[in-house]
Write a structure and sequence with these properties.
heterodimer; A: about 150 residues; alpha+beta; OB fold (Dihydrolipoamide Acetyltransferase, E2P); 2 domains; five-stranded mixed β-barrel; 7 strands; B: about 650 residues; Four Helix Bundle (Hemerythrin (Met), subunit A); six-stranded antiparallel sheet; four-stranded antiparallel sheet; about 65% helix; about 10% strand
Chain lengths: ~150, ~650
């Protein structure tokens, strides 16, 4: 057996072991379905980890400083495109720390679990600005390089 | 002025296309006259793109709101510096910056390698072909000189994303681009060598040098990106495995692997094909990553509203770049047989090979994680992959890499003997083990595996580097040199080796800093003025909030007195800004930074009752990442420092 093959086998074995180790380290929340609110309504079940995409209903944001939560409604169609809060999903975000871009009408992704009372408890919140840059003449936002806001990819 | 930019871009397209044709004819028919033409077009293209980018800078400086690109990315109230930086704040401008850099690199490459006559026509053709792609994009898809209809021209622009209005943002993208575009030169030389069949040492030297240069800037760009994220984005971290970050990290991994394995080819004439694969892979990954994030193929925290045509064209370009390179490689395989074989598993060569395996494994992990959502979407359901995946899988790989950083340089080439191993490893290994024991005792055995392993291995690597330096310096000092002379001659005589150690030392510091994240703490506090909160020996007292007087944004600054026990340390001033024009808030953290740890405070909100909601992070050892960065810069400069005398002479 040539030296090259020996090294390849050794390296392959080490990598396999590492891969196996890595896969045991993954928390179950690492791989999560990404769904729009409509898809989530159809498929989501209470208790299952989920990431849901939608828009913040106008005037629905309430900060509860004492309980350290932020409550708001998420609707499927953006308010500036005529969407209304009818049938919106209530979200309880379990922190007071909201992204800078989080506001009425903002495009959001909430990560967490559906509760038995059909409200959604979010542990992570990502927001994208309903920017006037977007859909402006050239449809460009200052996309230059890095992520705007929060640690996870949206 | 803007018309000048518009027309020079048109002309540049003609010139560069001519260059491609002339280069191919000159190379294929070995015609010197056509080759000359190809070389000259490179200089002309560079002049034209320089005029074009100058015109766009001028348009931003003078706020020419006729141009829709300027109107969309600048505003009167912005400082001149940020108006200039707004040039690369959007698609068309960053394409122009990219193009300009490609032509600048092409011009530099032409100037510095004129003597390689058989390579030059092909190098010129490949470089100009890359310029042609960007020129087509700029002329016909995304032109920064497009004008608004007269009725649409307003007296003020829309301004720039506030997150980008930060000093680091003025240099980070530029550094990153100098890095990413720079890999076009090694790509061109490798392809030219294969096409011309001229597989001597000229192309290898050119490829290695230019890769090192581009890699240096890419590394600095990545580090600055982390710094920017830390100082601006306000989530207490510097790296989040966002597709945009991964896009710059993947070519970095390939290039780093190449810079190591190329040494095996230089010393032992092995791994020829593999090295070419790495050169091609690096450049293709640069383009692929750019396409990934710019075309909106993968969901990133970016609003990319792209035209279909942009994605299609870019994908075609990336595809062609890859197919041509690897096709030619397949065709030229017979020319690429190495002269020697691996003699022993315990040797420097095999250390380098393992190093390459690990870099490729990390690259694979990052690649799969980044594309996983796309792949699963094709199978029906889009599944996102969080940072936990990247961290969990990469951590053990990174530890192995750290171990090799220490082991590799100490093992002999060809075949290591037991004496060699004993002589080299006893001291550093002892040093590493002692560190492990001391750490375990200091932490009373309450330290996770990863921090313990990282810091002990770091000590081991520092031990190996220290040993290398002291041995070499002692040998010189025995001959009567002073310590300082010994050190400088060492760095000058063998800059690659001893500069390389400094780079390794920088990487060790970065590892040390990253491992500190295992001990991060964070809390969310709601405080009324006068309240204080204690955290790990610190006391933070919220005093008051004051309004921010600034033309471009308003908001509040929280004033927080920081004490260690009762000793006042600093006043921390996290800000919550509102950018009026852009209608976008931003949180600017305040950081109290020491070598031991950072205290990082974000003003989340001033509540309606006047209390402040603060997010407080304690991030141990973060500073070592930036220190590592500076060390890395010094090391790479040592390696790249021009040093003409001894080697040049021996080559001819």
């Amino acid at each position: 057996m040539s030296k090259g093959v020996q090294i390849a086998m050794g390296a392959g074995l080490v990598l396999l072991l590492l891969g196996w180790y890595g896969s045991t380290q993954l928390e179950d929340a690492t791989f999560v379905y990404y769904q729009t609110l409509g898809e989530f309504r159809a498929n989501g079940s209470p208790g299952e980890a989920a990431r849901v995409h939608g828009y913040v209903a106008e005037g629905s944001i309430e900060r509860d400083v004492a309980a350290q939560t932020v409550r708001f409604l998420v609707q499927e169609t953006p308010p500036h495109a005529g969407g209304t809060a009818q049938g919106a999903m209530p979200v309880v975000y379990t922190s007071l720390e909201v992204p800078d871009l989080f506001k009425d009408g903002a495009e959001v992704v909430v990560e967490g679990r559906l509760q038995s009372d059909r409200s959604f408890e979010a542990t992570n919140l990502l927001a994208k600005c309903p920017s006037k840059f977007e859909g402006a003449t050239e449809g460009e936002m200052a996309e230059a390089m890095p992520p705007a806001g929060r640690p996870t990819s949206l | 002025m803007s018309d000048l930019g518009f027309y020079t871009l048109r002309l540049a397209l003609l010139v560069s296309a001519t260059g491609v044709v002339a280069g191919i004819v000159g190379g294929a028919l070995r015609r010197e006259d056509w080759t000359r033409v190809a070389e000259r077009t490179v200089a002309v293209s560079f002049v034209f793109t320089s005029i074009a980018i100058g015109a766009l800078f001028w348009a931003f400086a003078t706020l020419d709101f006729q141009l829709s690109y300027v109107a969309n990315h600048a505003a009167r109230s912005m400082d001149l510096a940020y108006r200039i930086a707004a040039l690369w704040g959007g698609q068309a401008g960053s394409l122009l910056l990219w193009l300009w850099m490609v032509t600048a690199y092409a011009w530099l490459a032409m100037r510095s390698h004129r003597e390689s006559r058989s390579l030059m026509p092909w190098v010129a053709a490949v470089l100009q072909a890359n310029a042609v792609f960007f020129l087509i994009m700029l002329n016909f898809v995304s032109n920064p000189f497009d004008k608004l209809a007269p009725a649409q021209v307003l007296s003020d622009g829309q301004g720039l994303n506030p997150l980008l209005q930060h000093p680091v943002m003025m240099i980070h993208p530029v550094m990153l681009y100098i890095g990413l575009t720079g890999f076009v030169v090694p790509y061109a030389f490798a392809l030219a060598a294969m096409l011309s069949g001229e597989m001597g040492t000229a192309w290898l030297r050119a490829t290695r040098r230019w890769t090192l240069f581009a890699w240096f800037f890419l590394s600095v760009g990545i580090l600055l990106g982390g710094r920017w994220a830390y100082e601006v984005l306000g989530w207490g971290g510097y790296w989040a495995w966002d597709p945009v970050e991964n896009a710059s990290f993947m070519p970095w991994l390939a290039a780093t692997a190449y810079l190591h394995s190329v040494m095996v080819q230089e010393k032992r004439d092995m791994l020829k094909i593999w090295n070419l694969v790495l050169v091609g892979l690096t450049y293709v990954l640069c383009l692929f990553g750019t396409m990934l994030t710019r075309s909106g193929l993968v969901r990133s925290v970016h609003a990319f509203a792209q035209t279909e045509i942009f994605g299609v064209l870019f994908a075609t370009y990336v595809g062609l770049t890859a197919v041509i390179f690897f096709g030619v490689l397949l065709w030229r395989r017979p020319l690429l047989v190495g002269t020697s074989r691996l003699e022993s598993v315990v040797s420097r060569e095999s250390g380098f090979i393992m190093n390459n395996w690990i870099f490729m494994a990390i690259l694979g992990v990052v690649f799969c994680g980044t594309l996983f959502p796309k792949i699963t979407e094709w199978f029906g359901k889009e599944i996102l992959v969080g940072p936990a995946y990247f961290n969990a899988v990469n951590a053990p790989l990174a530890l192995l890499l750290l171990l090799l950083t220490g082991v590799g340089p100490l093992i002999a080439w060809r075949r290591a003997t037991p004496t060699n191993l004993r002589r080299q490893f006893i001291l550093p290994t002892t040093f590493g083990l002692v560190t492990a024991v001391v750490l375990a005792l200091v932490f009373r055995f309450d330290i996770g595996f990863f921090p313990l392993a990282t810091w002990s291995l770091s000590a081991f690597v520092v031990g190996t580097i220290g040993q290398e330096y002291t041995r070499a310096m002692r040998a010189r000092m025995r001959r009567g040199e002073s310590a300082l002379t010994a050190l400088t001659t060492l760095l000058r005589k063998n800059q690659r080796r001893y500069g390389g150690y400094v780079v390794h030392l920088g990487m060790v510091f970065i590892f040390v800093g990253i491992a500190g994240a295992a001990f991060n703490e964070e809390r969310l506090e709601n405080l009324v003025p006068g309240d204080a909160v204690a955290m790990n020996g610190y006391r933070l007292e919220y005093r008051t909030a004051v309004p921010i007087p600034h033309q471009h944004y308003g908001g509040a600054t929280a004033r927080i007195a920081l004490y260690e026990q009762d000793r006042p340390l600093a006043t921390m001033t996290p800000e919550k800004r509102m950018y009026w024009l852009e209608q976008q808030p931003a949180s600017i953290p305040s950081v109290y930074s020491t070598l031991r740890e950072d205290l990082y405070v974000i003003l989340t909100a001033i509540e309606t009752d006047g209390s402040a909601t603060l997010k407080i992070y304690r991030n141990p050892l973060v500073n070592w990442i930036w220190i590592g960065g500076w060390t890395f810069v010094v090391g790479t400069l040592v390696i790249m420092w021009p040093h003409p005398e001894p080697r040049r002479a021996s080559r001819t």
